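From the methods appendix. Each design record in this collection lists the tokenized structure first, followed by the designed amino acid sequence. Records were kept in a plain field format so they could be parsed without special tools. The example shown here is representative of the layout used throughout.

RECORD:
FOLD TOKENS (261 positions):
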């Protein structure tokens, strides 16, 4: 399958999505959002997804020129349509993905690009990268799920700072705040991101899927809800071939070979 805005590569159980508009710092046109959502809609045999950007930027935000063209062509217009029909569905697909998602942030992650980066389970950033919610600087409000993501990841005070002051947050500061998993040297980014992605892709897929579901429930549910979900997930994971393999590997003092089943 060919794409206009992204590049998709699959190697074994790992699928890599590369935002591929480097001349625009990978600004996200509605079509790019649609293509990302399409990949997540049908992941096939993928057991993990790695997302990164081509060139010097991860994603500089929404491509306003492309969005304006689409609005003009449809004669409907407005950011509301672009968000509800393109950007929000793509971010939602990532958040709901049943496989682990890793973002390797190689440069600026601004606006909806920041949302994309933070929607992942693991966000690794090069030291040159930064995270930015610049909407307030042009009289707009954060979108693409940023308000929800930031409030839960770094708390109200820091989320308010990012959104109301429109300041750049460096990769190092983002790690210190707990906004991202890790900041690494620029030249080590892709090696570290791929190593993590491959580790997760070759992990116990059923167990990881239920860990993701239970973490999502923990954000909004009660402790009773979560404990019930954990018990059910443990029943399902415990009956998997990977759990049997994990137990045997432990007893035999060897590394488990998980198959994702």
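DESIGN:
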């Amino acid at each position: 399958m060919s794409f206009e805005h992204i590049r998709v590569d699959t190697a074994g159980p790992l699928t890599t999505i590369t935002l591929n508009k480097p001349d625009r710092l990978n600004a996200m046109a509605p079509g790019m959002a649609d293509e990302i959502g399409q990949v997540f809609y049908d992941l096939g045999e993928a057991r993990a997804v790695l997302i990164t950007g081509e060139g010097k930027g991860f994603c500089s935000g929404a491509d306003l020129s492309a969005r304006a063209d689409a609005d003009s062509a449809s004669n409907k217009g407005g950011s509301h349509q672009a968000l509800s029909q393109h950007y929000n569905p793509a971010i939602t697909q990532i958040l709901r993905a049943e496989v682990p998602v890793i973002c390797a942030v190689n440069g600026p992650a601004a606006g909806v690009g920041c949302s994309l980066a933070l929607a992942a389970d693991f966000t690794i950033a090069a030291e040159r990268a930064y995270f930015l919610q610049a909407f307030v600087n042009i009289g707009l409000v954060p979108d693409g799920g940023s308000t929800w993501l930031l409030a839960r990841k770094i708390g109200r005070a820091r989320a308010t700072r990012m959104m109301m002051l429109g300041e750049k947050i460096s990769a190092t500061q983002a790690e210190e705040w707990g906004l991202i998993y890790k900041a690494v040297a620029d030249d080590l980014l892709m090696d570290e991101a791929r190593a993590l992605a491959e580790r997760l892709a070759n992990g116990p897929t059923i167990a990881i899927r239920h860990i993701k579901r239970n973490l999502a429930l923990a954000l909004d549910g009660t402790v009773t809800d979560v404990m019930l979900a954990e018990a059910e997930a443990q029943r399902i994971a415990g009956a998997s071939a990977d759990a049997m393999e994990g137990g045997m590997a432990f007893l035999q003092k060897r590394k488990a070979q998980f198959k994702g089943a």
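APPENDIX NOTE: Residues 71-75 have pLDDT under 50 and may be disordered.
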